[in-house]
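hey can u check if this looks right to u? its 88 residues, i copy pasted from the old doc so theres a chance i mangled smth
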Amino acid sequence: MAHARVEHPLNTTNFTIVYLGDFKIGFSYETPIAFYDYDESEWVLRQNDWGPTTGKHLNYFFRKEDRQRLNSDEFEARLSKYMKGAHV
């Protein structure tokens, strides 16, 4: 079974990063907003469709070299595809 752990890096319960085996996913409230793609060596980010709090959560992952944030449909499709290949 994969090792699991949960982290609240901003010391708030509404922002969570879940680590499960080699899979990392960030949540704002209960919504997935980012996951780490080891093949690309980067966090894949969803665009902010909600507001300033989720914006702060997304900014935790953002770096200048990150690619553009994906719209909701693109993010969900990429996350689904990645999860099928992840060793969770």
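The chain has one domain: 4-85.
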